[in-house]
Amino acid sequence: MGTSVNDVSPGEADVHFSGIDRNAVLQALAAVLPPTCLLSELEDLRPWECDGLAAMRQLPMLVALPETEAQVVEILKICQRMGVPVVARGAGTSLSGGAMPHAFGVLLAMAKFRKIVRVDPVARVAVVQPGVRNKAISEAAAPYGLYYAPDPSSQIACTIGGNVAENAGGVHCLKYGLTVHNVLRVRGVTMAGDVVEFGSHALDSPGYDLLALLTGSEGMLAVTTEVSVRLLPTPQLARCVLAAFSDVVVAGEAVAEIIAAGIIPAGLEMMDQAATAAVEDFVHAGYPLDAAAILLVECDGTPEEVAEEVARVSEVLQRAGAGEIRISRDEAERLRFWAGRKAAFPAAGRISPDYYCMDGTIPRKRLGEMLNAIAEMERRYALRCINVFHAGDGNLHPLILFDAAAPGEQARAEAFGAEILERSVALGGSITGEHGVGVEKIDQMCVQFGENELRMFHRVKAAFDPAGLLNPGKAIPTLNRCAEGGRQHVQGGNLPYPELERF
Amino acid sequence: MGTSVNDVSPGEADVHFSGIDRNAVLQALAAVLPPTCLLSELEDLRPWECDGLAAMRQLPMLVALPETEAQVVEILKICQRMGVPVVARGAGTSLSGGAMPHAFGVLLAMAKFRKIVRVDPVARVAVVQPGVRNKAISEAAAPYGLYYAPDPSSQIACTIGGNVAENAGGVHCLKYGLTVHNVLRVRGVTMAGDVVEFGSHALDSPGYDLLALLTGSEGMLAVTTEVSVRLLPTPQLARCVLAAFSDVVVAGEAVAEIIAAGIIPAGLEMMDQAATAAVEDFVHAGYPLDAAAILLVECDGTPEEVAEEVARVSEVLQRAGAGEIRISRDEAERLRFWAGRKAAFPAAGRISPDYYCMDGTIPRKRLGEMLNAIAEMERRYALRCINVFHAGDGNLHPLILFDAAAPGEQARAEAFGAEILERSVALGGSITGEHGVGVEKIDQMCVQFGENELRMFHRVKAAFDPAGLLNPGKAIPTLNRCAEGGRQHVQGGNLPYPELERF
């Protein structure tokens, strides 16, 4: 989020922790960890003060870098006994502040857990440690013609442990599912120091589905120490269809029509005119700059499957009112088509001192409506917004451009972002598709959920971590916070957009 | 399970409930329900005394048949206040006794919740009440060219509420996923009478994934009152490949090779010689009776996709050592190929007074090994077993044939079944693929899970239902029960099969 930095002031959750004796915790941890696994000097702590949500910074009290599961167990037992918060961290690429440190807590960095335990090509499973990078799993599986499908934009850097914590998505998740659909088993440690196996390599493990519960729990239920993921055969071929539309609503309808025709492409992305203009200057992908919106539709499979799907997609796009339709002729052109989409975030950084990336979801059929609503908000907040969407999933990434140095702009950008999220919920969607809630969207959780749902979340949290020490203050707001914030739950009702039909 | 009936004696969980005042409960419920919604006479209770696990029978104390969610809330509040167990029931087709009544409890029959609330063909979602039959959803969606994919064998009778409770599977789940992958949102009522919305129609609802937690929870966390399911486009065409093998191990390897080749068929089933012989006598499907095992491979999609997949499947099967390969020429032949597979259970009933259907899962590559182990057990227990498998999922349905009237046979059948399940776990699989644990496999849960996992299950249960009133005595054994039963956890260790490499 650019250059501006808010030092986070201790919130309600922190009051309990202010009496923690830092030296006593340091001593206790030093007794179970070698010196290279424990950081306590200011200069060593500084690099850990934020994750991908760089606008929010907080020095951790201490950083632990364990090397073994047994050390993780010891660290958690000590922190549990001494009432010390623990924030687990992978590569720190979270865009919602999920790994932001706690002022009175231990940052549990899993960077040393980077072993690929085994790749089983027959069972099509990889067993890896949580600090293994997403992309490294596919690299290890490549000799067997296999890969790991979920592909967050940060896949070169982000780790599978963080992917599990955030239930990470990506372009390919439309066809191949989110992290939760591609993880078979997680081994983890609860705050009490108990090692628990969640899920199994077998179909439909009996008992409650704690694996799904853990996936996307934003590091609040357990610390992951080993992950088994499903591998898929690398598609023989991929081609990309690029379609230009003169109207955003018509482009949105084309997305719904592709899905309605029973086609699930390997990727289905949308960019508006402001986005194509921003990236074209940067990477020269050759996008049609006069189009109000473009769609990128990826088809993968055997050559025969790809040929057939490309033909069907093109036919639907034509019928839906596309102007120009281009089909990538070779791998180089396919990568060029995608280069622009993948450069959208850095391109926003090039044309604006700061930007704020949102992550709401809406039903696909409402894409056009949402784009028009955002255009109206641009005028009202006097800020530009460029729009890139995982359109097939109805997952929006509006990038609100602002200058934190200009008085009032950051506050306007935040209000703009909050209104997009609240409108997403009112349209039948949600406040996050894949980036998580973290600290960033915790107030919007009060809009998304009612009291009964929030109460259930707190009860489930207490089942795993009764003292509330794992990643406190993230993801799930207290009922008090929602009541005091005055935000109204809109999912079950129809505020603040009474004109919208509830789906 | 045939004709023999064990009246269930009150277990450890029932001791707390023996002081319940039946008349007081009846009066309290009569105050909130019309007379047609409450059954208390013996002749009215009798039809509800068992589910699909007919060998276990238990009269409920009372049966409530609510018509509205508000009545469900009232019933649960009354039972919570009076400490009365509640067992929710759909169509009662559970094969594991998941809906078996409780002697001191109210059976909450959801049979009157059979409204299809709406079908939205654009969003491809159906919103239905829990008492709607699985097949009825596809029937309602058919005019839009859509259907609901999970297809348990009982789909004509079983209800979506029960499907959610058991995370039901079926032949198509290899390609299209289990219930948990096809349900978007469940509205339910907790034991305290709180209405909670689990999940949403949007991608990846934020907060903990309580929807996945509820799915497959065997009616122990909440009572479902409304379900939103994903609809898929009906495939244009389906064809079935039938392959005969002279060796079960080779047939098992062929299954693993199809999946390893990156093909995910719409169905991939295996039957051994005893199974084909039993069904051939019954439905005359034309199966090759000299084969040690046959595979049925269903390919669906557009005509081009089907043609290509059938060719690839045939090639892999040939290379893997199939003898005869037949490809269905028309819809009539395709249905005939499947008729035998679908008649396997009734065919077992024809050739044996009783049978016991198991539901373990194993890694696909170990199918042949498992079949040989079962053959050895047949000799040791002196009982016949016919084998039908959802082979693509590694989900076994061995049908152990016995005569409950013959002294000792039922006990031998149960020991045989338990050994199959324990061997499944030792091979890296699980004790149930799709039928649930219920009362039937509760002791095997002690083999599948260790203390830490069981303790987490109990904590999660307590988060939803602290008094333990929803479906008590099912699915999750107490730690005491496991300790007293003397069953050893084998997943994490290597007992009782030290010769097996742990996967």
TrEMBL record, chains A, B:
Q: Which residues form the FAD-binding PCMH-type domain?
A: 56-234
* Keywords of the record: FAD, Flavoprotein, Oxidoreductase
Lineage of the native species? Bacteria, Pseudomonadati, Pseudomonadota, Betaproteobacteria, Rhodocyclales
Q: Which cofactors is this protein said to need?
A: FAD
* InterPro entries named in the record: FAD-bd_oxidored_4_C, FAD-bd_PCMH, FAD-bd_PCMH-like_sf, FAD-bd_PCMH_sub2, FAD-linked_Oxase-like_C, FAD-linked_OxidoTrans_Type4, Oxid_FAD_bind_N, Vanillyl_alc_oxidase_C-sub2
This chain belongs to the protein called FAD-binding protein
